[in-house]
Amino acid sequence: MHKFINFLEQKLVPFSSRFARQRHLAAIGSTFMTILPILLFGGLIAVINSAPVVEGSTNAFMLAWASFVSKYSAVLGWLNAVTMGMMSLYACLGITYYLCKHYKEEPFIPMLLSLAGFTMLAADPQEIVYGSLLAQLTYFDGKGLLVAIFVSIITVEIYHFMISRNIGRIKMGENIPEALTLSFSSMLPALVILLIYGILYAIFHANGTTMAAWVSTLFAPALAAADSIWYVMFIALLLNFSWFFGIHNTVYSLLTDPIEYGNLSLNAAAFAAGTSLPCVFTVSFWCYFGIIGGLGNCLAVSILCLTSKVKEFRTIGRLGVVPAFFGISEPITFGLPIMLNPLMLIPCSLTSVVNVALAFLAMSSNLVGRTYTMLSYNMPSIFGAFFSTGDFKAVILIVVLLVLDLLIYFPFFKAYEKQFLREEEAAAKA
Asked: What is the rounded CA–CA span in Å between residue 409 and residue 393?
């Protein structure tokens, strides 16, 4: 085991660290963390909009809530549409910004170009009367994420390539406003980029579709397969196994984020429309049910530490239990430690696999409501589970999963505790 760990530490961890810093993956990961406040607002609107059925009820609060939602349904629907319903647009702008930041390029013009390009390829204009167009924005939510990633990367890479090589740069005299200089310098790159998107739009439009709709149809089987118990268990095993070796989950952002956020957006749209929620695997499903206490399910470990015979473990537990309650696992992961601790490899990986498998079965069989909103990465699971599903049974499920995490960790923790005490005694004798 020690040889295996040393091999991974020497070979895999440095590679994964470099991979995680790859500019496109880093930009995608940073973007989804950055746009969370917008998704939080949209999530709160969705919670407010989920008024309970009040038929036959005499509860004044419930009646007032239902009346408020009924009266302002159009307002609430629009607020949800420009937050959760514009997820792909915000992602496109965010990835563009972070890629420009990587290249040290002024981001304003590339962000405008990405905005124009994404709109061309995702919106479906429908002519109403001469000179007036109404665009279908169906793919501005999570369904357009792949196109958003494509547009932002292509925009910045072409822009940076041309700007860095002074291709098409128009020299301006001194004392010219900076904004005007930037505009003229970007003229040819902007024309090239917009021409590419214009041609793509024309091709798809001639075939009666949009690029976003075509991509969504093309990847529909793969996305459907990703919303399965086997894929979810694989992701849970992969992310927690990697975390054990210090490999952050951002390494796999391209593999997970478009699916998790895209599915959440689909569920939010279905909830707003009053139809059944189509997906189980969302970002809130993963955060609240898959990793209770952060990666490694460290809330269970922190509770065990509080009851330990070892003084150092109890101290770590007191320091780590509150952060773990809010989904922050680092104090336990690095303090106990869990990372690179052979006794903790199995429970660190197994707990999330068990959690997501049971949660997936409960939701897919409609025993527990599915998630349709994301409030915060650091929302305690017991609260996040309820607010993301609107189902009190989700709270019961969290309690059950936490108990199972404790049971899985218990024998390994006790073995580690005994090992620590033996080493402490040996050191004292020496």
From this structure: 24
Distance CA 120, CA 346 (A): 49
pLDDT per residue over 182-201, tens digit each? Answer: 676 788 899 999 999 999 99
Residues 264 and 375 reside in one and the same domain: yes
Instruction: Extract the tokens encoding 243.
Output: 């975390």
DSSP-assigned letters across all residues of 108-134: HHHHHHHHHHHHHHH-EEEEEETTEEE
Q: Are residues 105 and 145 in the same domain?
A: yes
Is the full-model pTM beyond 0.85? no
pLDDT of residue 422: 81
Strand partners, 67: none
Q: 14 lies in a domain?
A: no
The sign of the CA dihedral 336, 340, 341, 347 is positive
The answer to whether residues 370 and 412 belong to one domain is: yes
Domain encompassing residue 113: 90-218
What are the backbone angles phi and psi of residue 128, rounded to the nearest 5°? -95, -60
Residues 182 and 152 in one domain: yes
